[in-house]
C-alpha cells in the first residue's frame, strides 16, 4: 500500500498551485501515520465494528471499500480526516467556503497587514453565451495584453492607497477596503473528512468547475489518491 512517505502525500510538503503565491500543504491526517493504522484500514475497521471485526486481509478489505462506495455507505469514511493549509485568492475561497462540510480558520485582515500577493490570471477567458456561470474559450492575445496592463494599473493603485492608509494610521480593518477583494490571497487552515472530501472533489475537479478552484482540486485529489490509494481506487471505479 502507498504510504504517507510518498512524495505527493507527505505531511508538511507545500505544493504550488495556480500562481507564485498559491499553495496546498497537507498538515495532518487522522489516523496519523504514527498510529500504524492506514486511513484505508481505518475505514475498514470502522465499517466492520458493526460485527466486532477488523481487517480480513488486503483483498477482502479492498472489496469492502468498493462495496461501501458503490452502495453509498458513507459514514465509515467520516472516520478519516484531512487537515490542509491553503493559500488561495478570494476568487477561489468564495466558492470553496460554500461547502459547509469543511471547517475553516482563516487569516484575518484585521489582525495582520495583507501583503501584496494579488492574483494575476495567466489567461483571460470569454463568458459563455449559453451558461451564465461559465466561461468558454480564451480572449485573443492582443486583447489579453491590454487587460493585463489595465489590471496591473488597478493593482498598483490599490497597493499604494492601502499602504498610504496604513501609514496615516487607518485601522487595518478599514484600510483593506482599498484592496481589490477577489484578487487578495488568504491563508486558511481547512479540515474535512474523507466522505465529504470525495463529494467536494466530484464537484470542484469537474470540467464545469471554475478554472481557479479546479487547479486546487486537482492537487488535493492527487494528495487524496496517495494517502488513501484503496479508497481512491474504489471511488474512481464508482461509475
The secondary structure category is: alpha+beta
The CATH architecture name of the largest domain reads 2-Layer Sandwich
Give the biggest beta sheet: 5 strands, antiparallel
**Which spans have pLDDT < 50 for at least 5 consecutive residues?**
1-6
Q: So how many helices?
A: 8
Strand content: 15-25%
Please, what is the average pLDDT?
89
The strand line-up of the biggest sheet is 1-2-3-7-4
Supply database-style keywords.
Gyrase A, domain 2, 239 residues, elongated, 17% strand, 8 helices, alpha+beta, 2 domains, two-stranded antiparallel ribbon, 5-stranded antiparallel sheet, single chain, disordered N terminus
In short:
This protein is α+β, with helices and mostly antiparallel strands and 239 residues long. The protein contains 8 helices and 7 strands, in the order E-E-H-H-E-H-E-E-E-H-H-E-H-H-H.
Task: Kindly describe this structure.
This protein has 239 residues and is of the alpha+beta class. The chain folds into 2 domains: 7-107 and 187-236, Gyrase A, domain 2; 125-182, no CATH class. Helix content is 41%, strand content 17%. The chain contains 8 helices and 7 strands. The protein has helices at 39-48, 58-70, 90-96, 141-167, 172-175, 194-204, 211-227, 229-236, and strands spanning 14-16, 23-30, 81-89, 103-106, 125-127, 135-138, 185-193. The strands form 2 sheets. It has a 5-stranded antiparallel beta sheet. Strand 1 and strand 2 form a beta hairpin. The chain is elongated and about 65 Å long. The model is unreliable at 1-6 (pLDDT under 50).
Amino acid at each position: 500500500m502507498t504510504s504517507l512517505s510518498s512524495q505527493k502525500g507527505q505531511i508538511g510538503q507545500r505544493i504550488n498551485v495556480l500562481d507564485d503565491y498559491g499553495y496546498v500543504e497537507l498538515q495532518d491526517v487522522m489516523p496519523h501515520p504514527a498510529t500504524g493504522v492506514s486511513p484505508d484500514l481505518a475505514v475498514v475497521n470502522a465499517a466492520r465494528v458493526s460485527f466486532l471485526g477488523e481487517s480480513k486481509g488486503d483483498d477482502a478489505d479492498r472489496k469492502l471499500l468498493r462495496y461501501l462506495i458503490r452502495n453509498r455507505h458513507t459514514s465509515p469514511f467520516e472516520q478519516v480526516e484531512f487537515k490542509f493549509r491553503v493559500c488561495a485568492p478570494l476568487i477561489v475561497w468564495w466558492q470553496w467556503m460554500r461547502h459547509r462540510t469543511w471547517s475553516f480558520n482563516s487569516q484575518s485582515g484585521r489582525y495582520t497587514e495583507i501583503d501584496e500577493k494579488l492574483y494575476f490570471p495567466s489567461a483571460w477567458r470569454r463568458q459563455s453565451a449559453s451558461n451564465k456561470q461559465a466561461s468558454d474559450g480564451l480572449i485573443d492575445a492582443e486583447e489579453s495584453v491590454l487587460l493585463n496592463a489595465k489590471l496591473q494599473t488597478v493593482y498598483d493603485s490599490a497597493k499604494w492607497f492601502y499602504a498610504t492608509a496604513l501609514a496615516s494610521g487607518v485601522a487595518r480593518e478599514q484600510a483593506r477596503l482599498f484592496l481589490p477583494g477577489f484578487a487578495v490571497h488568504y491563508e486558511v487552515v481547512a479540515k474535512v473528512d474523507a466522505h465529504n472530501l470525495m463529494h467536494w472533489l466530484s464537484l470542484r475537479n469537474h470540467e464545469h468547475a471554475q478554472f481557479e478552484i479546479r487547479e486546487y482540486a486537482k492537487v488535493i485529489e492527487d494528495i487524496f489518491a496517495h494517502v488513501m490509494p484503496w479508497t481512491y481506487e474504489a471511488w474512481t471505479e464508482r461509475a
